Amino acid sequence: MNAILFGTSSAIALAALASAAVDLTPAASAWVQRIGIGRFPDEAAWRDAAAERAMKWLLRTPTVRLTDQTRLLWLDMLRGEYRRAAIQHWQEAALVLGLTELAGFGTAASGVDVPAARFSSRMRAVLGRFFSRKFDESGGWREQPEQVDAAMLAWAVMASGLEPDRYRRAFEQTAELVLRHVGGYRYVDTIGLVCPFLAAYGLTYGREDCVDLAVRQIDAYDRHGMHPDLHLPYHAYAAGDGRPLGLCGWGRGLAWYAIGLADVWRLLPASDRRKAELEARVAKLAQAAARFQQPDGSWRWTVTRPETRADSSVTAALAWFLLRAAAASGAPGDARERARRALAYLRGVTRRSGAIDFAQGDTRDIGVYAQRFDVLPFAQGFALRAAAAAQEPEQGRRA
């Protein structure tokens, strides 16, 4: 009997130790990696380190956790609540966009001083390996996506300018996916995730219905999903009656709206009558975003509450947005300077490994916001997009 009890007690003790090891590993790893954070001699050294880290992540993207739990993580893993595959698409998309624009590929980075040929060559090799993992020989997805998050990755591939026609089948599959996903709620996330792809796909392949849908999504959100005075987006709104849902002032929600608005505006040709309307919205949103930037250059995860934590993902996306918005008539005159302050903040929260830290984790539902702040490939990618835009010569600022 004693032997049985001893054996049972030992098994329980070992299980507890194993569980504690699983729980403590992420926290201990983050603590170690934050030693010496932000110590880069200059902007160029920081940019190089951030780009190196992004290339490594593109081939092996780190897990973005769904859970905020710090104990019994193995239970979340078993229940499938630790991570979700769809989250990876927008992480990978941001990395592709940031790296290709920094390297001077595609049309989005025209005017940028192209980095050393060796970096560009390495980038092509990394992207080639990444694309071969994502797409099959026919140019379709190897694993057919089920969530519209994939649209952002499809847009990033198109924007890279690296044999985009080769992946036309995947773009067609993505367009079909987006067009059949119509729900009762309209999320601000989808403005950034979907609208740039729809506009790019429609303009490239003569699908005016897709371009029109992208603009109409932005128009509808401007009418139903924005605070009338602050001009900040709510997390969502109900399609049936237009009632706003979730937090007004959620930082990454503002970032998602800014991303979709700016990219669609830039994609539309100058002859398109809708371009001027979008430009006015870009300027108005830039004014709203500038109002809530903090003295240290960051934006908080709730932008209207300076006492909340700074969020690197919001800061990176809005730094890029302000650099783009500087070309819009009516945008803040100090938009570029504000973006530089944001980049300086990001440099100060970058680990020695080049990983930008303290980004808010993924959001689980309307009104349910992560309180875990860690590395996030999305923040890394948009920091590189902002760094690329900041290098553009002054004469190349106009869209």
From TrEMBL:
Signal peptide: 1-20
GO biological processes: carbohydrate metabolic process
Coiled coil regions in record: none
InterPro entries xref list: 6-hairpin_glycosidase_sf, 6hp_glycosidase-like_sf, Glyco_hydro_88, PolySaccharide_Degr_Enz
GO molecular-function term, one example from the UniProt record: hydrolase activity
Protein name: Putative unsaturated glucuronyl hydrolase
This protein's UniProt keywords: Hydrolase, Signal
Native source species: Thermobacillus composti (strain DSM 18247 / JCM 13945 / KWC4)
